[in-house]
TrEMBL record:
Protein name: ParB/RepB/Spo0J family partition protein
Record region (Disordered): 1-28, 545-579
Superkingdom field: Bacteria
Biased composition (Basic and acidic residues): 1-10
Annotated Low complexity bias: 15-25
Gene3D superfamilies: 1.10.10.2830, 3.90.1530.30
Organism from which the protein derives: Gluconacetobacter aggeris
InterPro entries according to UniProt: Chromosome_partition/occlusion (IPR050336), ParB/RepB/Spo0J (IPR004437), ParB/Sulfiredoxin_sf (IPR036086), ParB_N (IPR003115)
Location of the ParB-like N-terminal domain: 6-97
Molecular-function GO term, any one: DNA binding
Length: 627
């Protein structure tokens, strides 16, 4: 094989008809790449082959050629290769899959074509593409998917791996029928709903778990049904007998999920009284209480809430209470009337922007410290990171279907033979990569790292990485009182409107840098100290309660004592998140019974603002009650 270096007009290059990338390019990424090429040029020349007529066909590097044309370059460097053409397709695929991931459908189409047309074995493909046999098997799942589902995967809104396995196991005609049923009312009269391609907005909200449930061949037994044979016949359920099941029980079953669910819902509707309700469930099959409701854990009468478990299709029922907070409702328990709410200086939108900007600054600081970080700093940083609120690791952007997380990549590189590779540079690189994958400053109950990431910012001096935040989009998140405080802190006079004060602050900062104290990292140390003090105080109080319990096991607590403990428990947890508030309160008022339900309900109404948060809160209350 020989190679030759040339400079040619990129417009004269011929695309490869066997280019493994067939998905439409991302225009925004191409635009950024073209701007980069205008500045630094083409750093890696595309590889081409000269045809019999003298034209040059691209083997790999189509994107570089396309973006060079967008950048209006007259000539670009290319490498002209001659030699065995049999390896061209294999080289093109490995170039794309190793250096920049193709979409999963494109990867599968390429691998499938290499098997069929070139007769490459699995071992050859794994070696050339640097993937495992398990990865190729996962790719083969795509072979069993209905084409519109492949389209959704190509735009990054396809099913997760569990749903993908369920769908891929389902015969193609059943996938097609289910797809047609979903979109039958969406398409035009003359179109085939089975071939409907979702828009990006539709794909974002599509429930793949529910779609997989509908396809899954699960046996739904008559013994688990609330409905009787009359409703079964009305809804067209034809029972089959499970001849291999244990005797002495009703072993009739159906695999018709929709008819079974319909009959269950019909039974529920027949049970609903005037004050009863039917609730939706979350992904775990638990009922999601609506606003103004709370679950009564030990009640045996009253309004009922029915729900249908989305996984098992079993009917559930709990008792509930309508909850309408009244001004001064806590007075009977010694609590003062709630103070009127005052708008904070920075809105929730502003807090989220601060979190995103902090995250960027923190990651820049980690990059800057990568080459010089002291080993003990790294150990301390890892300890901090893994004490973050987002562990066990949720929100890690480095993992996914067929894609190892930063943690897995690090352990594979550092323990290739099961023994640690003691390479300081390699250890630093992968430690920082794992820190970046785990630590973030996002404002999120479930995936944000919380105060731990802010302390990492202090450790690695992320404040110097913070950008100028004196820009209109961010300043608009300030209340008038907040922006007034901000401009006066800069020595500027307050103005009659927030708009004038924003403009004055932006003009005052100019090309400099302005970061509000609340957005920086340094202020987190005071918050951390306060948290430690509060935790220590709370632990001491629990220890006192434990000693009292040990000394007075036979003494029954009075109603007055119960109320007093409830008030202190509520005060102690008022500023925490719903889960911590619930657990902390429950630890102090264990056995308080109905009084516990009252406090839990008040905490739930204050902290759990969405159906998902309410369901999560209720699950913690149920756990504490069971304990």
């Amino acid at each position: 094989m020989t190679t030759e270096f040339r400079e040619v007009d990129p417009r004269t290059l011929i695309p490869n008809p066997n280019n493994p990338r067939t998905s439409p390019p991302n225009e925004e990424r191409d635009r950024r790449f073209a701007l980069n090429i205008q500045i630094v040029g083409v750093l890696q020349p595309p590889v081409v082959r000269e045809q019999a007529d003298g034209t040059l066909m691209i083997l790999y590097g189509h994107r570089r050629v396309r973006c060079s044309i967008m950048a209006k370059l007259k000539v670009i460097p290319v490498i002209v290769r001659s030699g065995d053409e049999k390896l061209d397709d294999l080289a093109a695929g490995s170039e794309n899959m190793i250096r920049e991931d193709m979409s999963l459908p494109d990867q599968w189409r390429y691998v499938d074509r290499m098997r069929r047309e070139k007769n490459y074995t699995e071992r050859q493909l794994c070696k050339a593409l640097m993937v495992t046999p398990a990865y190729l098997k996962r790719l083969s799942l795509l072979a069993g998917l209905h084409p519109p589902i492949l389209d959704a995967i190509e735009i990054d809104y396809g099913p997760d791996e569990r749903a993908l396995r369920v769908i891929a196991r389902t015969p193609a005609d059943e996938q097609r029928a289910a797809w047609a049923e979903i979109w039958s009312e969406t398409i035009a009269d003359d179109a085939d709903p089975a071939e409907y391609r979702m828009t990006e907005d539709e794909a974002k909200d599509f429930d793949w778990t529910d779609f997989a449930h509908a396809l899954e061949h699960t046996q739904f037994f008559a013994r688990d049904a609330s409905f009787d044979d009359v409703l079964a016949r009305k809804h067209g359920i034809a029972w089959e007998e499970d001849l291999f099941a244990e005797g002495g029980q009703d072993n009739r079953y159906t695999v018709d999920r929709e008819r079974y669910a319909s009959a269950q819902r019909a039974w529920i509707e027949g049970q609903l009284g005037e004050d009863d309700v039917l609730l939706a469930t979350n992904e775990y099959g638990q009922p999601m209480m609506e606003d103004g409701m709370r679950r009564l854990w030990h009640a045996k009468e009253g309004p009922r809430a029915f729900y249908l478990d989305s996984r098992t299709l079993k009917v559930g029922c709990v008792f509930l209470e309508r909850w309408t907070p009244q001004p001064g409702a806590g007075a009977a328990m010694g609590a003062s009337a709630p103070a009127p709410k005052v708008r904070s200086d920075i809105s929730g939108t502003g807090e989220k922007m601060i979190g995103q900007i902090r995250t960027h600054a923190l990651h820049s600081a980690l990059d800057a410290a990568c080459a010089t970080a002291e080993p003990w700093d790294l150990v301390g940083a890892l300890l901090l990171a893994f004490c973050g609120d987002n562990i066990a690791v949720q929100g890690d952007p480095t993992g996914g279907f067929g894609k190892p997380s930063a943690r897995n990549a690090a352990t594979a590189a550092l323990f290739p033979e099961g023994v640690l590779v003691r390479d300081p540079e390699l250890l630093r690189t992968h430690t920082m990569a794992v820190l970046r994958s785990v630590a973030n400053c996002d404002v999120s109950l479930h995936s944000g790292s919380g105060i731990a990431a802010q302390l990492l910012g202090v450790l690695f001096d992320a404040d110097v990485q913070m950008p100028n935040m004196a820009f209109d989009e961010f300043l608009k998140t300030f209340s008038k009182a907040g922006i007034t405080t901000a401009v006066e802190a800069e020595g500027l006079a307050a103005q009659s409107t927030g708009k004038l004060m924003r403009a004055a602050l932006i003009a005052h900062v100019g090309e400099g840098r302005w970061v509000p104290e609340a957005a920086g990292f340094a202020q987190s140390t005071a918050t951390w100290k306060a948290k430690l003090a509060k935790d220590a105080h709370h632990a001491a109080r629990l220890a006192v309660h434990a000693e009292d319990d040990d000394g007075d096991q036979d003494e029954e607590p009075s109603d007055a004592d119960d109320g007093e403990d409830l008030v202190s428990a509520e005060d102690e947890t008022a500023s925490e998140d719903p889960n911590a508030a619930c657990v902390s309160a429950a630890a102090e008022i264990d056995g308080a019974g109905e009084a516990f339900d009252a406090v839990a309900g008040r905490l739930r109404d204050e902290f759990a603002s969405t159906p998902e948060a309410r369901a999560h809160f209720d699950s913690h209350v149920m756990f504490v009650r069971a304990a």
